[in-house]
């Protein structure tokens, strides 16, 4: 059984979105908080990891010139600090959604995502898919090259369900690091625009530029 170490929430018209970190240990300690140009961060320490949790909103308008009603996004930057086994898991899920809410998959190139809609609102939640994670591993870009999946050219650490995204952080060695991102955005229902889907379909490098991460 895993312990919930931290849980951040985002209240939307289509339910409460939670982004939680779970571990087989129970220790977590907040080290420091601060701000980027377009985001805030909290630096945390768990039994085996140093973690930076970054919260931010999507850049508006997007490259299509569109906006959304609101958004909340999380980036987890995880570095192995101690040589002990700690099983970390990140889960983004929705609860308390309206009875008329409908769920569906909404993945695309480099994106694993699901959507929630009703007659008034639409919401998307997305993360990088296994292909782009494997590409980052090939380039040692906040994903260890050691963990390249050469058999399928695909990382299988994330499980996408219709109402949740769950990532099992791979076993890391000392000083190895991993970047995981989870973006969510909602707006009034409008079948003529894909603005909320576009909002969650962002590359790591573009997010870092927007937030002001160096």
Fold topology:
Elements: E1 3-12, E2 15-23, E3 28-36, E4 39-46, E5 49-56, E6 70-80, E7 88-95, E8 102-105, E9 111-117, E10 121-128, H1 130-138, E11 158-160, E12 164-168, E13 177-188, H2 195-200, H3 204-211
Antiparallel strand pairs: 1-2, 2-7, 3-4, 4-5, 5-6, 6-13, 7-12, 8-9, 9-10, 10-13, 11-12
Structural class: mainly beta
Q: Topology as H/E string?
A: EEEEEEEEEEHEEEHH
Estimated radius of gyration: 17 Å
Span between N and C termini? 37 Å
Total E-strand runs: 13
Indicate the low-confidence ranges by residue numbers.
Answer: none
What distinguishing features does this structure have?
11% helix; five-stranded antiparallel beta sheet; 214 residues; globular; 3 helices; 48% strand; eight-stranded antiparallel beta sheet; single chain; mainly beta
Would you write up a description of this structure?
The protein is mainly beta and 214 residues long. It has three helices and 13 strands, in the order E-E-E-E-E-E-E-E-E-E-H-E-E-E-H-H. The protein is globular, with a radius of gyration of 17 Å.
């Amino acid at each position: 059984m895993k312990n919930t170490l931290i849980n951040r929430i985002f209240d939307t018209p289509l339910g409460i979105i939670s982004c939680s970190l779970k571990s087989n240990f129970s220790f977590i300690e907040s080290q420091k908080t601060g701000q980027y140009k377009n985001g805030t961060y909290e630096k945390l320490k768990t039994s085996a990891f140093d973690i930076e949790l970054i919260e931010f909103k999507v850049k508006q308008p997007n490259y299509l010139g569109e906006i959304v009603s609101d958004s909340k996004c999380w980036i987890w930057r995880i570095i192995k600090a101690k040589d002990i086994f700690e099983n970390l898991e990140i889960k983004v899920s929705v609860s308390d959604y309206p009875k008329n809410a409908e769920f569906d998959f909404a993945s695309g190139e480099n994106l694993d995502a699901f959507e929630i809609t009703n007659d008034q609102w639409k919401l998307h939640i997305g993360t990088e898919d296994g292909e782009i994670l494997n590409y980052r591993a090939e380039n040692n870009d906040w994903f260890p090259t050691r963990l390249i999946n050469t058999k399928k050219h695909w990382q299988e650490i994330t499980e996408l369900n219709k109402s949740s995204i769950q990532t099992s952080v791979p076993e890391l060695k000392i000083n190895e690091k991993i970047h995981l991102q989870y973006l969510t955005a909602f707006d009034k229902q409008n079948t003529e625009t894909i603005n909320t889907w576009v909002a969650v379909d962002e590359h790591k490098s573009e997010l870092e530029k927007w937030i002001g991460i160096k």
